[in-house]
């Protein structure tokens, strides 16, 4: 009975662990799902000449409800501390010291306070200020990405946004610029020219079809900034929010971009330019000076210089540090624009094609795959066929070699063997009964059937008592040995993988997506650390149990080996078909998981840009497509497991039918239908029957 209750006890423990893990996962999901969404607060202005109008706006990263909840939590913690110390009241000054967040909630939690900001259509607005003064927050407020505490925000027109940290997709350079828009040759090559990308594209091995790695890893900082600017320029929107787009380029390239892109291409657009380069601010229609989340001053460049306040001090300080070099470069570039230098898309495209042919011919006689120069990310290889034997050898070597593996197998053998021996010994003890002892009943001498009268009773009792600590000791030894072996294998493989990753060349990180590396160190290592040891332990345990069960059954009924061999052959065929399908499905599921991780990370990094360009549906559709591909493989794996379970249950039913037939035979023997010499002892039959049930369960 206890032997059959053991799986239920293991199932109960596993069920409890699953419940705890599921509860933690639900709590983590709940924390995200209960986050308050940003309520759309942008409306259209009544005055249609206004592009953006912020009227006495106060903004924060978190909503007021979240801040109050956090303050209430801290307040309860402070009250609890007071109660524990025996004090029930406190002065206002003490409360402020204990909970400074509550007293300064509306001041410190707001990133922008009482902002009044008006931009007329077609104007170029400059925004400047020290680091952390709220310049980026001002652009995010205009995009609707902050929580509005008070005031109003009005905007008329579509937006394009260039973030301070350029966001680059893992796609070709052309697709990064197009960003889902249809290809227009004239507009595309004009965008490349105005963003000073022509020479950079000519240097790429595949031109604008060259794949860009995640986060633009194979581009310089200035190149990434110009690609992000080209994406915004090609989108042809009404309002352009540029967050310091010239910070990563040199003075000459910056002057070219400012004149050709911002002053010329965006001449009739509304542009809000955040910059630390004060030489560009004199060309702006209005300049806003930010300080501590507020607009400390605004006006034209000349007006602000005449006031001789913070703006004038900043301009003079910058001029004294950099001299007139930047201004000379800007004026030189401006003169070139005034001389009538224009863009010829046909000429520019012809030069690019010519340079590409020259670059290809310089490779000599070496033949290159035309797609090889364009594709950067190496597709993840999917192994085909069965798992090779050297894979098992490497795992055994990581676990300590064949000696440690044999030691672990021996521990399992001792544990299962001692358990089987205890069952056999108990059956033999009960079968022996009273031995040769006799008792007097009604003045007659009769053989005793009481095991207490058996002269070998102390020997049976001692052996059976010894088997109990032996079983416990072998169980402990098995657990310690197996844990040590599998832990050593997991640690060795993890350290070797991490060391290999740390010593990989930069080309590896350029060609390997982040999601693939995260998948290796998370899901794949979890398989090695957790699920592989569980599977190996189950296989080794059940293997010895089945061998001992077959041994005892065949000793009792030798003819039972015939149907057993037939069932084993059927099981082998079923398992072979199952392994082929599940193995490939698991490989496909594992490979299809990495792009999901990469895509989620990329999407989170570029949320502001995605919202600004209105591409939420496109990114969601791409995610759902990849998610469906992954879950399809996972669902088919579950279906395959059910397929196997149905057939294994059928085989178990056949085994039960065979054992029932054998039980009928034993009953016939027992009730005298056959000679007593052929009688199978009922206790041996009970042990045999228990082992058969155990085989069916496994």
From TrEMBL:
Q: Where are the transmembrane segments?
A: 402-426, 462-480, 544-574, 594-614
Q: Name one GO cellular component term.
A: endomembrane system
The ABC transmembrane type-1 domain covers 406-653
Q: How does it sit in the membrane?
A: Multi-pass membrane protein
Under the heading InterPro entries, the entry gives: AAA+_ATPase, ABC1_TM_dom, ABC1_TM_sf, ABC_transporter-like_ATP-bd, ABC_transporter-like_CS, ABC_transporter_C-like, P-loop_NTPase
Question: Which domain of life does this protein belong to?
Answer: Eukaryota
Basic and acidic residues: compositionally biased ranges? 344-356
Localization per Swiss-Prot or TrEMBL: Endomembrane system
Short name of any one Pfam family annotated for the protein: ABC_tran
Q: Where does this protein chiefly localize? A: membrane
- What ranges does the record give for the region Disordered, renumbered to this chain? 340-375
Record's Gene3D superfamilies? ABC transporter type 1, transmembrane domain, P-loop containing nucleotide triphosphate hydrolases
Q: Which terms in the Gene Ontology molecular function aspect does this entry carry?
A: ABC-type transporter activity; ATP binding; ATP hydrolysis activity
Q: What UniProt keywords apply to this chain's record, in alphabetical order?
A: ATP-binding, Glycoprotein, Membrane, Nucleotide-binding, Repeat, Transmembrane, Transmembrane helix, Transport
Q: Where is the ABC transporter domain?
A: 96-317
Entry's family note: Belongs to the ABC transporter superfamily. ABCC family. Conjugate transporter (TC 3.A.1.208) subfamily.
Record-given protein name: ABC transmembrane type-1 domain-containing protein
The organism's taxonomy opens as:
Eukaryota, Metazoa, Ecdysozoa, Arthropoda, Hexapoda
């Amino acid at each position: 009975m206890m032997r059959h209750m053991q799986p239920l006890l293991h199932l109960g423990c596993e069920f409890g662990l699953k419940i705890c893990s599921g509860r933690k996962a639900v709590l983590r999901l709940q924390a995200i799902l209960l986050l308050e969404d940003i309520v759309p607060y942008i409306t259209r202005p009544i005055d249609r000449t206004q592009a953006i109008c912020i009227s006495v706006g106060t903004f924060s990263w978190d909503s007021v409800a979240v801040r109050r909840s956090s303050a209430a939590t801290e307040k309860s913690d402070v009250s609890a501390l007071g109660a524990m110390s025996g004090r029930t009241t406190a002065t206002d000054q003490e409360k402020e010291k204990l909970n400074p967040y509550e007293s300064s909630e509306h001041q410190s939690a707001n990133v922008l306070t009482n902002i009044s900001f008006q931009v007329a259509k077609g104007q170029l607005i400059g925004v400047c200020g020290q680091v952390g003064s709220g310049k980026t927050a001002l652009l995010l407020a205009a995009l609707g990405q902050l929580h509005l505490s008070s005031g109003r925000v009005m905007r008329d027109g579509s937006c394009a946004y260039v973030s301070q940290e350029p966001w680059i997709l893992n796609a070709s350079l052309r697709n990064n610029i197009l960003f889902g828009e249809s290809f227009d040759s004239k507009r595309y090559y004009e965008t490349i020219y105005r963003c000073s990308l022509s020479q950079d594209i000519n240097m790429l091995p595949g031109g604008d079809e060259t794949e860009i790695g995640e986060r633009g890893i194979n581009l310089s900082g200035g190149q990434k900034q110009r690609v992000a600017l080209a994406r915004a320029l090609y989108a042809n929107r009404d309002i352009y929010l540029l967050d310091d787009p010239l910070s990563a380029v040199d003075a000459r390239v910056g002057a070219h971009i400012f004149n050709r892109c911002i002053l010329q291409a965006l001449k009739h657009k509304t542009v809000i330019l955040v910059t630390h380069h004060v030489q560009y601010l004199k060309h702006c229609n209005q300049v806003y000076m930010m300080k501590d989340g507020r607009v400390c001053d605004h006006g034209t460049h000349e007006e602000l210089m005449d006031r001789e306040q913070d703006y004038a001090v900043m301009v003079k300080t910058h001029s004294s540090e950099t001299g007139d070099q930047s201004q000379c470069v800007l004026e030189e570039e401006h003169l070139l624009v005034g001389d009538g230098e224009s863009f010829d898309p046909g000429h520019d495209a012809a030069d690019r094609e010519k340079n590409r042919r020259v670059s290809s011919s310089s490779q000599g006689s070496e033949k290159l795959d035309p797609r090889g120069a364009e594709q950067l990310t190496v597709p993840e290889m999917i192994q085909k066929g069965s798992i090779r034997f050297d894979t098992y050898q490497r795992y055994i070597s990581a676990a300590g070699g064949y000696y440690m593996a044999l030691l672990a197998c021996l521990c399992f053998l001792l544990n299962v063997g001692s358990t089987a021996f205890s069952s056999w010994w108990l059956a033999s003890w009960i079968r022996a009964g009273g031995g040769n002892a006799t008792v007097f009943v009604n003045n007659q001498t009769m053989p005793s059937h009481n095991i207490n009268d058996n002269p070998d009773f102390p020997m049976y009792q001692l052996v059976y008592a010894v088997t109990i600590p032996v079983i416990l000791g072998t169980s402990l030894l098995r657990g310690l040995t197996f844990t040590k072996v599998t832990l050593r294998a997991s640690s060795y493989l993890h350290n070797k993988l991490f060391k290999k990753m740390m010593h990989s060349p930069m080309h590896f990180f350029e060609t390997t997506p982040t999601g693939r590396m995260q998948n290796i160190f998370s899901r794949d290592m979890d398989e090695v650390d957790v699920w592989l040891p569980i599977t190996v332990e189950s296989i080794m345990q059940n293997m010895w149990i089945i061998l001992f069960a077959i041994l005892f059954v065949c000793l009792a009924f030798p003819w039972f080996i015939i149907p057993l061999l037939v069932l084993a052959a059927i099981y082998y065929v079923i398992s072979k078909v199952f392994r082929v399908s599940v193995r490939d499905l698991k490989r496909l599921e594992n490979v299809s998981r990495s792009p999901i991780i990469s895509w989620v990370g990329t999407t989170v990094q570029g949320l502001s840009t995605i919202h600004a360009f209105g591409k939420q549906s496109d990114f969601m559709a791409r995610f759902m497509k990849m998610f469906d591909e992954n879950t399809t493989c996972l669902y088919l794996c579950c279906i395959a497991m059910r397929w196997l379970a149905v057939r294994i249950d059928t085989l178990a039913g056949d085994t039960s039918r065979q054992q029932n037939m054998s039980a009928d035979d034993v009953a016939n023997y027992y009730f005298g239908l056959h000679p007593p010499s052929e009688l199978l002892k009922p206790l041996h039959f009970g042990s045999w029957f228990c082992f058969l049930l155990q085989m069916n369960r496994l």
